[in-house]
Amino acid sequence: MSSPYLPASIPCADAAVAPVDGLYREHRPWLFGWLRRKLGCEHRAEDLAQDVFVRVIQGRKVVRVNEARALLTTIAKGLVVDHQRHAALEYSYLAYLATLPEAYAPSPETQAEQLQSLMQLDRLLDGLPPKARSAFLLSQLDGLTYPEIARRLGVSLSSVQQYMVRAMSACYAAFYE
To answer: Residue 163 class from Cβ within 10 Å (0-12 exposed, 13-18 middle, 19+ buried)?
Structure first.
């Protein structure tokens, strides 16, 4: 008895399931073109197209033929959003550095380390629930007190404290563990 769900890494005779190598051969040119139009850069499109298939290999073990393009598009859209968010963050960081007097500008190595830390912090914040992320940003960037944050978010003071514990614990784990 043939199953419509088989591991993507094992070639199969069932036409309803696509092995990854066949998926790659059939959909990579289309996906690359779609990404190139979205990003306006052939090199970034190539990188993200490869990343899409790496995600397929690492995550999903079964790809149904009739769902392949939708799956690839969904993964690609997420990667494009991540890429654009990281590009905006990098642009903002470089714009900030451009405002510093040359004597205060960090070395290229330090800049790279700081940018990497910013990217890590961005991923961490993106993984927090919206209110915890908002509480953390209002505290750290706007300098609001916990009672001010509670009023702004329409939550109790104890909720703000819980949000901050969660956010700070995530920061600690990301940077020190």
So the answer is: buried
- Report if pTM > 0.70: no
pLDDT of residue 65: 79
CATH numbers and ranges of domains, the chain: 1-105 (1.10.1740), 127-176 (1.10.10.10)
The answer to whether residues 56 and 63 touch, using CB atoms and an 8 Å cutoff, is yes
**Secondary structure E strands in the chain:** none
Where does residue 25 fall: left (phi above 0), alpha (psi -120 to 50 degrees), or beta otherwise?
A: alpha
The DSSP secondary-structure symbol of 103 reads: G
| Under 8 Å between Cβ of 50 and 42 | no
Question: Do the beta carbons of residue 71 and residue 60 sit within 8 Å?
Answer: yes
Contact 15, 65 (CB under 8 A): yes
Please state, in angstroms and rounded to a whole number, the distance separating the CA atoms of residues 62 and 120: 30
SS3 6: coil
- Which residues partner with 160 through β-bridges? none
Per-residue model confidence as pLDDT tens digits over 60-90? 667 777 888 998 999 999 999 989 988 999 9
